Every structure is written in C-alpha cells, then in structure tokens.
Amino acid sequence: MATVYACMAPGLEEVECLAAADVMRRCGIEVILASLGEKKSVTGSHGIMIEADEMFDGERCRQADMIFLPGGMPGTTNLMNHEGLRAALLDFHKTEGKRLAAICAAPTVLGANGILAGLHATCYPGREAELTGAILSDKPVVTDGKVTTGRGLGVALEFGLEIVRLYCGEEKAEDCKAKICLQ
C-alpha cells in the first residue's frame, strides 16, 4: 500500500492535515505525520497541538510514495523555509512514480520551486500569483500529472478522497465517501 509523508510545520492548518490524513488512513494508506519543527508536538495556526509520528527525516521522506503539504499560516512559510523538505520536493518532482500534494496556501511552496510549471493547479483564493508557471483552476481539488492541489480547509475531505482515488481506485474512494456521509 502507498505511504504518504505529511509534513507538519509549526503554524499549519490543523484540520487540513488531519482530515485528509484520516480519510487516507481509513482506506489503508499509511500516513506518516512528520514534524518539521523542533519537537514532535506541532502547534497549528489555531493553537491546537498535534503529536507527530516522527521528526522530519529526509531519507525516510524520500522512501514515501507521496509528500503531502498542509497549508495554513505561518505553516506554509515554515514549509517554504525548510531546506530538507525543499530538497525532497525537488527529488520527488524528478522521480518517476513519486507524487506531491498540497492544499490551501501550501501549493505556493510547489510554485516557488518550479514544480507547477505547465500544470493545472488551485490554491487558497488570493494566492494564485504565487503558483509560478501554473495553469490556474477554480476547481476545489485538481490533479494534473503527479501533483494534486486543493483550495483550502473546506475541501480537505474531498482532497483526501482524491488521494485515495489515486492510490486505491474510484470504488474505494466512493465507498469511503459514503461511509463518512460526504454528499
């Protein structure tokens, strides 16, 4: 089964991270919550503390099938400034079979690193200019090639289900959608 490496920077949008991770785990995807801060406990943008599974490890990250970036502020800025993450993102961008996913403001990290050039992408409204080279979409969740982007908190479940669809198929995603009563 697929492994998703969820990068939790201090100041992340808590629900974007946990809602998507919950949906993926329900469907059998291994989700590793990795702290990019100084300790395993990460405090989000709304003061909610989340205990990560482990500290960020570049090698462990590279073993995953997907890197997932939750948004939020200043979480997105902290993602942007993490050199180990940047190196892993660029490696994934070049490596066949590796996927990237980012929601809310976090797609701007992909844009800043040239990863969205020529791809359809979405992000939190007002941040579109930071999706350098992307073809902007107004859809709530967009997958183009091996990159999935989402607009924000309101689509976190749909975003998680898109990742389930990519790794587990349409039937599994629809079954999960019904079980969590998502219309």
Q: Into which percentage range does the β-strand content fall?
A: 15-25%
Number of helical elements: 7
CATH architecture: 3-Layer(aba) Sandwich
How many structural domains? Answer: 1
Name of the CATH superfamily: Class I glutamine amidotransferase (GATase) domain
At CATH level 3, the topology is Rossmann fold
What is the CATH domain class? Alpha Beta
Order of helices and strands: EHEEEEHEHHEHEEEEHH
Give the helix level as a range of percent: 25-40%
Q: Kindly report the average pLDDT value.
A: 97
List the uncertain runs.
none
Which secondary structure elements does this structure contain, and how are they paired or packed?
Layout lengths: L2 E6 L5 H13 L3 E6 L5 E3 L5 E3 L2 E2 L2 H6 L2 E4 L5 H6 L2 H12 L4 E5 L3 H6 L7 E2 L13 E2 L4 E4 L2 E4 L5 H13 L1 H10 L4
Parallel strand pairs: 1-2, 1-6, 2-5, 6-7, 7-11, 8-9
Antiparallel strand pairs: 3-4, 10-11
Helix pairs in contact: 1-6, 6-7
Description:
The chain has 183 residues and is an alpha/beta fold. It has one domain (3-179): Rossmann fold (3-Layer(aba) Sandwich), CATH 3.40.50.880. The protein is built from 7 helices and 11 strands. The strands form 3 sheets. It has a 7-stranded mixed sheet, sandwiched between helices. A two-stranded antiparallel sheet has the order 3-4. It is globular and about 40 Å long.
